[in-house]
């Protein structure tokens, strides 16, 4: 009987000791489990983040989507002369990346490789266009794009519509003048690129028959001598009036295939001569202006913040 009681006491003591041990070790067990769960969660979040950042762009007419940065290389190669300053090429890369992500909703939609959107050169086209300069230019453009990898332009936390053009007339055009939509980051700013461009001013001649055919009119040279032109605050043509005929500057540019909306019309002998200044719609960053700023010591970020007012340059936000 005594042995039984002693054995029973030992069992009770062992049970109590075991219970206390469990109470002592449980927190460590749960802590280990928590760490394992956190590690798994962090791993999954990291994988999701990486996947979210694997952005591709579908170029209309191409069979397969293109990696975002490869697409930007193709755009910079097509849109800006490769002999421009590296900082200008970097600014173009940031603008092109921003434009395509905004236009395609981060790659959800295709984009046309045209001047209406962004021109794109694939590797074969670059080899053809650059010829024996291919190796040097390819390296230069790639370095510009890679050094700005993932950088985009934001205004109030949203991607901007990063419009750009070849050459200004001394002032960039505001979005309000161009389209009627007033965007705070697309305001008119000074741009001295015309001082650096050999082909800043260009003449284009028409016979009276060509003029009437293109504009669907029946005007005479004498009537055109009395042309009236109204300009906006950046010096670009707002309206052209000849007799009872009236066109907007943008319509006239399209109908006559002019380089810009900053033009003057003169009758010289039997010809109508239209002289344009600058090249492009004039909104946003001027490419020749970017090159001029870079030659004068400006960085890519300084160029961007000059042409796109009150914006921020940030890395792509992957959600």
UniProtKB/TrEMBL annotation:
Report keywords, A-Z.
Membrane, Transmembrane, Transmembrane helix
GO biological process entries: sporulation resulting in formation of a cellular spore
Q: Spell out the GO cellular component terms annotated for this protein, sorted alphabetically and separated by semicolons.
A: outer membrane-bounded periplasmic space
Q: Where are the transmembrane segments?
A: 12-30
Question: Where in this chain does the record put each Sporulation stage II protein D amidase enhancer LytB N-terminal domain?
Answer: 66-155
NCBIfam families linked: SpoIID_LytB (TIGR02669), spore_II_D (TIGR02870)
- Protein name, UniProt field: Stage II sporulation protein D
Q: Which organism is it from?
A: Ureibacillus endophyticus
- Output the lineage of the source organism: Bacteria, Bacillati, Bacillota, Bacilli, Bacillales
């Amino acid at each position: 009987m005594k042995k039984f009681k002693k054995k029973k006491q030992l069992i009770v003591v062992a049970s109590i000791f075991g219970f206390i041990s469990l109470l002592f070790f449980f927190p460590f067990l749960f802590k280990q489990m928590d760490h394992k769960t956190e590690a798994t969660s962090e791993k999954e979040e990291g994988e999701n983040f990486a996947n979210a950042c694997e952005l591709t762009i579908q170029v209309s007419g191409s069979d397969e989507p293109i990696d975002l940065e490869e697409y930007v290389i193709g755009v910079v190669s097509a849109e800006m002369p490769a002999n421009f300053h590296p900082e200008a090429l970097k600014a173009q890369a940031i603008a092109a990346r921003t434009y395509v992500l905004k236009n395609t909703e981060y790659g959800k939609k295709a984009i046309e490789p045209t001047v209406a959107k962004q021109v794109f050169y694939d590797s074969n086209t670059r080899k053809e266009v650059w010829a024996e300069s291919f190796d040097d230019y390819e390296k230069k453009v790639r370095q510009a794009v890679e050094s700005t990898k993932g950088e985009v332009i934001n205004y109030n936390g949203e991607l901007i519509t990063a419009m750009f053009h070849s050459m200004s007339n001394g002032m960039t055009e505001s979005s309000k003048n161009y389209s009627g939509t007033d965007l705070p980051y697309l305001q008119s700013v000074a741009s001295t690129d015309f001082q650096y461009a050999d082909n800043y001013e260009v003449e284009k001649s028409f016979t009276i028959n060509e003029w009437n055919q293109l504009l669907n009119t029946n005007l005479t040279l004498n009537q055109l001598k009395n042309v009236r032109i109204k300009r906006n605050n950046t010096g670009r043509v707002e309206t052209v009036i000849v007799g009872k005929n009236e066109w907007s500057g943008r319509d006239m540019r399209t109908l006559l295939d002019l380089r810009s909306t900053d033009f003057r019309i003169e009758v010289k002998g039997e010809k109508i001569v239209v002289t344009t200044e600058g090249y492009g719609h004039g909104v946003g960053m001027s490419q020749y202006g970017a090159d001029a700023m870079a030659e004068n010591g400006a960085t890519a970020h300084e160029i961007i913040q000059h042409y796109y007012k009150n914006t921020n340059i940030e890395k792509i936000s992957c959600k």
